[in-house]
Amino acid sequence: MKKLAQIHFAHRRDQLAAEIGLRSIAIIATNPVMMRNNDADYKYRADSSFFYLTGFAEPEAVAVIETFDTEEEGYCYSLFCRERNREMEIWNGFRAGLDGALNDYEADEAYVIDQLDEKILEKLLNKDQLFYRIGHQAEFDTQMTALLKKAETTHRHGSVPTQIIQLNHIVNEMRLHKTSEEIELMQIASDISAQAHTCAMKSVKVGMMEYALEAELNYIFGKNGCVPSYNSIVGGGENACILHYVENDKELKDGDLVLIDAACEYQFYASDITRTFPVNGKFSEAQKALYNVVLQAQIAAIDAVQVGHSYQEPHHVAVKILVQGLLDLGIMQGQLEEIIETERYRQFYMHGTGHWLGMDVHDVGSYRIDGKWRTYAEGMVVTIEPGLYIAPDDDTVDKQWRGIGIRIEDDIVVMKNGPHVLTSAVVKTVEEIEALMMIS
Ligand code: GLY
Ligand code: MN
Ligand code: MN
Question: What's the CA-to-centroid distance between 155 and ligand 1, angstroms?
Answer without folding.
Answer: 48
